[in-house]
Amino acid sequence: MFNKPAIEVVRLKESRQINDYQELVAHLPELGDRFPVSIKNWCGIGTRPSVLKFWQIYIALQSENSIGITGLYQQPITKKNNVWLGWFGILPSKRGIGMGAKMLYETEKKAAGFGFSKMHVYTDPDPSITRKFYEKHGYQLFGKARDVCDEVTNTPEDLVLAKII
């Protein structure tokens, strides 16, 4: 008789302890220069230049090991039922094996639990791996960042994808 493979579970943990994020910050440089500053602000070290209506950051855990980071936020101009996916990144060793999809699903569940019904995400305008990932999981083109939310984006050339959750 064969044993069934264990189902890989990803759970999200909210933390405001900077030490919980330091290893992830070091292994996810693709999140950019603003990522470490934002994490410090999240942990109470410093303040954001603008106040967000809603802001949550989570560490993604697999068997108590940190494998990624994900977050949800609302800009002051964001509609009541809409939320943005922010700082979504997974360790390189966990990419391409379904862990990112599980992380995204858990993040969408968190958003729905807070009463949000639509989630947006910024992505590169090129047909990148990132864009393909979101499209594979039901996100559709909503518009160019400069047209959708020019006053709050850093990269007007980016695209905004959206999904009803």
Task: Give a quick precis of the structure.
This protein has 165 residues and is an alpha+beta fold.
Q: Please, could you describe this protein's structure?
A:
- The protein has one domain (11-164): Aminopeptidase, CATH 3.40.630.
- The radius of gyration is 16 Å and the shape is globular.
- It is built from five helices and seven strands; from the N terminus they run βααβββαβαβαβ.
- A seven-stranded mixed beta sheet has the order 1-2-3-4-5-7-6, sandwiched between helices.
- With 165 residues, the chain is α+β, with helices and mostly antiparallel strands.
- The mean pLDDT is 87.
- It has helices at 18-27, 34-42, 99-113, 129-136, 145-149, and strands at residues 11-14, 54-62, 65-74, 82-90, 118-123, 140-144, 159-164.
- Helix 1 packs antiparallel against helix 2.
Pick out its properties.
single chain; 165 residues; alpha+beta; Aminopeptidase; 7-stranded mixed β-sheet; 5 helices
Q: How large is the share of residues in beta strands?
A: 25-35%
Question: What would you report as the Rg, rounded to the nearest angstrom?
Answer: 16 Å
**Net shape:** globular
Alpha-carbon distance between the two ends: 40 Å
Quick one: CATH superfamily?
Answer: Gcn5-related N-acetyltransferase (GNAT)
DSSP helix fraction: 25-40%
- The secondary-structure class comes to alpha+beta
Task: Say what the CATH topology is.
Answer: Aminopeptidase
Number of domains: 1
What is the CATH C level class, in words? Alpha Beta
- Number of helical stretches of at least 4 residues: 5
CATH architecture: 3-Layer(aba) Sandwich
Major beta-sheet overview:
7 strands, mixed
Poorly predicted runs of 5 or more residues = none
